Amino acid sequence: xxxxxxxxxxxxxxxxxxxxxxxxxxxxxxxxxxxxxxxxxxxxxxxxxxxxxxxxxxxxxxxxxxxxxxxxxxxxxxxxxxxxxxxxxxxxxxxxxxxxxxxxxxxxxxxxxxxxxxxxxxxxxxxxxxxxxxxxxxxxxxxxxxxxxxxxxxxxxxxxxxxxxxxxxxxxxxxxxxxxxxxxxxxxxxxxxxxxxxxxx
Length: 201
What we know:
The protein has helices at 11-31, 38-45, 49-53, 59-82, 88-108, 111-122, 126-148, 157-167, 174-180, 189-198. It is an all-alpha fold and 201 residues long.
C-alpha cells in the first residue's frame, strides 16, 4: 500500500494497466464511450478480452480509471498554482481560470471526451466526488493563507472553500459550461471570478 492508502501494483501489472487505460482513452476519444467495447480495447492491444478482465471487471471500471487520471492531471495543475509565490487572491483566480480552460478546451471542444465526462457525472462516481473534495482542499489552504496575510476576512476556511467552489461552478462544470457558453445574458468568467473573490475579502 502507498502512503495515501492506495494499492501499489507490481511493475509488470502496472505497465499492463497503463496500456489498457491508454488504449481505452484513445478509443473512447475516437469512437465515443458508448460505441467502444472491451473487445475493441483488447483488439487494439492485441490481447483477448479475457486478459482485459483480469485487470478491470468492466468497461465502466476502465472508464472510471481514465476519468480518475484526467481529474488527477487537473488537480496537479491546481496544486502547482497553489504553490506559486503570489497573493492568495491571484492564485484562486488562476485556479478557476485553469479549470475553465480545461473544461472548454478538453471537455467541450472534443465531443467524445465530453461524452465521457457527462457519463461519469451522471453516474455520480466516487472519482468525481473525491476530486471535488480535493479541489476544495486546495481552495481552503489558499484561503487560509489569504486570511493569515490579511487579504481575506477571518472565517471557516472549509465552508469558504465549498462556497467559493459553488459560486464558480458555472465555469468548471462541463454541463453548465456547455449550456452557458456564449450566451449574452450570463456573467463572463472574469466577472464571476471577481464576484466570488469579493465575497472572501
